[in-house]
Amino acid sequence: MTELDIQIVQDADEEAGRILDQARVQAQAILDQARQEAARTAEEILRQGLAAADVARTQAEAAVELEVRRDNLKMREKVLVQILTGIYAKATALRSVPAYAEYLKDCIVQGALVIDTSQVEIVGSVAEQGVCQRTFLNAIESELAGKYAKNISLDFSIDPAFHGTGVWLKSRGRPMVCDGTFEGALERNYEKVRRDILKEVFRDDA
Q: Of 174, 137, 175, 129, nearest to 154 (Cα)?
């Protein structure tokens, strides 16, 4: 092999070495870039995963809070129903209280003033009949005339359809127009009674 041949081979080897070195550098650069891309992708996936986890946790917490509120409301309403049921059940016991006659008198006076006709019929049960005797009604008529300047004649009758603790009042011969029962008063003032009970039981402004 001549010196020229040797030089050509050496030059070729050196060129091959340079090409190989460049290829290695390029390969390393590509590998580094791929690793960086993979790291960024992994970080993005992790970030998205954490964000999704935060959303899922927030949604779960909101769902739990909503369920707790629902259970709390259900519990409140259950307590309210129990209390009101007890009140309704014990309403008839008012008839045995000495102040029941005064309660009936107030119901009759207020009902008669609302109806405001010359003749008012008081409707109740046998229990109310025991209180609404003629002398009792005469005293109410006198109060209506003296205190309110209303000349109203009062009569009492028993109606099988009557229910409640108190009386109904109506213009004689006409349908009942005024509910003077304890139960009727509760129904008319239900929202206020409900708020008062919940405020007293749970110490808040429900």
A: 137
Token code pair at residue 9: 């081979």
**pLDDT greater than 80 at residue 190:** yes
| Residue 64 confidence (pLDDT) | 63
pLDDT in tens, 44-83: 766 776 666 566 567 666 666 766 677 677 777 787 788 8
On the question of pLDDT at 129 being above 60, the answer is yes
CA distance 17 to 37: 30
User: Within 13 Å of residue 148, how many CA atoms lie on the same side as its CB?
Assistant: 15
CA distance 186 to 200: 17
Distance, CA of 127 to CA of 184 (rounded, Å): 18
- Judge contact between 166 and 97, C-beta under 8 A: no
164: left (phi over 0), alpha (psi -120 to 50) or beta: left
Question: 60 to each of 55, 63, 72, 74, 183, how far by Cα in Å?
Answer: 8, 5, 18, 21, 44
